[in-house]
Amino acid sequence: MNKEQxxxxxxxxxxxALEVHKTMGPGLLESVYEFALVKELQLGNIYVQYQVxxxxxxxxxxxxxxxxxxxxxxxxxxxxxxxxDALHPVHQAQLLSYLKxxxxxxxxxxxFNVTLVKEGFKRMxxxx
Length: 128
Fold this sequence. Notes:
single chain; 128 residues; alpha+beta; Trna Endonuclease, Chain: A, domain 1
């Protein structure tokens, strides 16, 4: 995927998050926002997967552990959904770890428990 395609999808993701927030408002569970965001992206004909299991390896060895990506858009963009009072550095570290471990270049941390969704929208990159 080239940068223009990434940027197009980034815009679509932000607009979908805005629509979800406008429709649902703040204060709900993360799972509600995940579902709504999946549906909103699908309505825009964007391929999105929900709760994607990724096995965890250490130096080439399978640890038998796994982590779950909240949403994976077009098999390329990781979205971590939150509904918290405030985003903290640990949330950003989590997304960055997911990007590295899943070998993805672009991700978004979206906190829906805010007055304006742009206040809870954080873009992160890994070798982008």
